[in-house]
């Protein structure tokens, strides 16, 4: 019974195919394509989509192509039919599986154990199991187009232009059917709603079919479930939907491209592509949303989905038939039915734009290098000296401070790097790196920069004193030079910490400087790479004279023992200081007394 219903449609389909074949032959005869064009395809622009390789198929006249979820296999059918070719992407080696019929649509659908490949023959739908590539068939005459519905988890096909069929995604077996209201040759499913869309070749329209309202098993089952949108003057050849389901794209055989808002089912925009599009060559990049269409005359168009502007055109040989895009969005596969080849297009992103206006401010054994940002993305910048490949600084900012530079002239180059490449800038003007030295005069102070002595007296010090200085508001990891004015004297240098502060010890000169008011100066760079100076008025004074040491005592004895330890005192210093004449008087008195005593005894 189903054969009876679809036979008129199959006849019209055969007539259309014959007309297309005649048109193709006429076009082919009108062009003299150079043989070298196949071997050396135009690589296209230096950035954007371009042909990376072209390989010959194992059979003549490839038609429809599909790609595996892992981008490791292609599935191709041929105009002469009777085979589905499984091609290993890495080796380009092919495995053939026999089918009954000429080139018909091919579809990959998810499965619990990975995926399945459904391929339509003349009277059957074939299911291929990955790995073993075993093939099984189910009855399915006259399948013109197939699509997988993420919402229902099943496959929908248009058969013979006049029947909508729902199929088992693993086997392709027919589960239910309903008659279409229009003659359709292309189908797409909404990713999150129970709706499918068909492109109506004869009626110059597109139809939205609400699956919940379809009267399955009825020859007019889609009539009350369909909403039709007229596209006057068009002959829709293919249909595709955006990854989020918000937009529907319809391409007619003369190159008119339509964009339809699925929420309101209204036409929002249209563009005319220059070429012939008799086959179902429309694809949508699942990652970027870009629209891809192949022109029979040899151009592949990549189209911005928002504006419908052509963003890339890749010139290949005439005879293009179908396109398939890898699930990761990085490759476009294009079949050429005249040359029996498959071209692989890959997106080549441009190298980043260079950094601009590179300029340097020199300092003592260091320099601040600044530049204008690249106009491309968010690159990493590497600073080198001109003529050297040694990285002096790597940053994502637009300036850096480079320390440890040798004294002398230098130019700097900033190289912008992204995943797509590197681009060096023009070199900066030459600057001269100097040795550390005190500035000739007291500079103007920079807001936010300070200098002081550490401790309780931040503005006072003594000649010859070792004292810590604290400089704040300078660029982390840079160096700060501290000097003394009035007579310029470099006191020392220190490296700035992550908080913008440098603390280090210096020595105030012991001579050659007058006491009184002076300036303490810190010189370096701000955190933004600009020259910076901090200035503080200070007072320097001479150190006080040391107190004199008292003389050692002059007494007749010592309180120091022979072992060097001081003995305990047994009397006052006054007692030890009496003159010797007192002792002499006592001796004289004693001697007179003795003499008087002797005289009395003699008497």
From TrEMBL:
Transmembrane portions of the chain: 580-599
From the UniProt entry, list the residue stretches annotated as the region Disordered. Answer: 543-574
- Signal as a keyword of this entry, yes or no, is yes
Q: Which stretches are tagged as biased composition: Polar residues?
A: 559-572
Q: Which keywords fit this entry according to its UniProt record?
A: Membrane, Signal, Transmembrane, Transmembrane helix
Q: Which PROSITE patterns match?
A: TAT
**Which range is the signal sequence, renumbered to this chain?**
1-39
Name-wise, this protein is YncE family protein
Q: Which organism is it from?
A: Leucobacter muris
